[in-house]
Amino acid sequence: MKLTTAGESHGKALVGIIEGLPSNLQIDIEEINYYLALRQSGYGRGGRQKIEKDSVEIISGVRNRLTLGSPLAFIVKNNDYENWREVIAPEGCDTDKRKLTCVRPGHADLTGILKYDQTDARNILERASARETAARVVGGTIARQYLKVLGVEISGYVKSVGNIVDPNIYAFERLSEAKKHSLFMLDGEREKEAEKFLDKLKSEGDTAGGVIEIRVKGLKSGFGSCMQYSTKLDALLCGAMMSVQAIKGVEVGLGFAAATLAGSKVHDEIYYDGNYFRKTDNAGGIEGGMSNGEEIILRAAMKPIPTLMKGLNTVDVSTNKPAKAAGERSDVAAVCAAEIILESVVALVLADVVSQRLGGDNMREVAKRYGELR
């Protein structure tokens, strides 16, 4: 199962094609739009979210809400395109308008200009923008619907914003409550503290990042492989999470904390009561590159958004003289958006590894084969 995306931040639309979906998967368009709306929510978001009200339009591969087994194609239109048509239209436009040469630290601007032989960073930033992730949320929600048929659920919450950390451990069933909160944090007091922290940063023209925890429940053992490095489940999941804009670190289970403990405190002992099980889940549900049947636990560190309203020191590439970085419309924090996007990319990876192992041209075959696994 593979998702391919296209589209620019202020272009006509974001486009996606999903290959490898079996037939007769019921597609819930309302749920896709629900997750698109969640991606645009959260305390600290900027003005772009007031312009774009994302919704998906499926243009092939589905009839009467059921997949056909053919490629599924969709678009998410950019409402802001009309405001940018004269600057970005593929049919012809004024490329000197809104030209960006004061490249922004922390962005793809400078490296992209050099790599692709450009003089205007807009030709780089339009695709490098996190706006692209709306297409991955669509694809990820469809992957989530595929996994849900098999009893596999994905959820998460925001564990920290800046240096305000929620140290609590929550049952999987509680994680969905986070979506009702302004910062997707489950500790109300820390969430209020984080809101005040973001208000202060906004007044200073600054930004913040945070840590997001994603959990997966119901995935049986044996997905992924120890036989080739490129098929290890943790490698696939971590790579997908690192592909999300602004994510700078990922850990599985105990993660970096495992390096500080003795082995006897790290490895999950195995028991049997008719089924194999573990009383702890320090491995985060993955051993030897394969799911072990326990909850998968992943965490991702999101850096502060690199577009600062006050602008950082940089160079104007048209003159090579010192300048202040250009200010594009920006968020103070986008941890809630990152949480939804991370759930989506995890769903895409899991749907792919499940479909590789099970095969199946239709959902009845897929569900039957999954049900027969230990």
What's the arrangement of secondary structure elements?
Elements: E1 2-6, E2 13-19, H1 29-39, H2 48-51, E3 57-60, E4 62-63, E5 66-67, E6 72-77, H3 81-88, H4 109-116, H5 122-128, H6 133-149, E7 153-161, E8 164-165, H7 188-203, E9 210-217, H8 233-242, E10 247-252, E11 270-272, E12 276-278, E13 286-287, E14 290-291, E15 296-302, E16 313-316, E17 321-324, H9 335-358, H10 363-372
Helix pairs in contact: 1-6, 4-5, 6-9, 8-9
- Give the averaged pLDDT, no decimals: 95
User: What is the SS-derived class?
Assistant: alpha+beta
Secondary-structure element order, as H and E?
Answer: EEHHEEEEHHHHEEHEHEEEEEEEEHH
DSSP strand count: 17
Task: Describe this structure in a few short sentences.
The protein has 374 residues and is an alpha+beta fold. It is 31% helix and 20% strand.
